[in-house]
Known about the structure:
Number of strands: 4
Subcellular location: Cytoplasm
CATH class: Alpha Beta
Mean pLDDT: 95
Strand order of the largest sheet: 1-4-2-3
Order of helices and strands: EHEEHEH
Pfam family, one: PTS-HPr
Distance between the termini: 30 Å
GO biological process, one term: phosphoenolpyruvate-dependent sugar phosphotransferase system
CATH superfamily: HPr-like
Main location: cytoplasm
Helix content: 25-40%
InterPro entries: HPr, HPr-like, HPr-like_sf
Radius of gyration: 11 Å
CATH topology: Histidine-containing Protein, Chain: A
Amino acid sequence: xxxxxxxxxxxxxxxxxxxxxxxxxxxxxxxxxxxxxxxxxxxxxxxxxxxxxxxxxxxxxxxxxxxxxxxxxxxxxxxxxxxxxxxx
Length: 88
């Protein structure tokens, strides 16, 4: 398992568009992807779970990837989150 912590910097947070981009990219990997926020684990491949988590600008999250391609999955998650999903 590999993990990395982030602070969400999108002004609108992890709303529908970035959640869709994230899920679309994460489902390309065989590894399990979880987002942890406030002690709760969220399935990083489920748009409904991500939307229900209400991840806002400034939220502290940790992305955990576990599986055969975990390093690649975390690298892609890192690129997406740190780029602000292209919204900045």
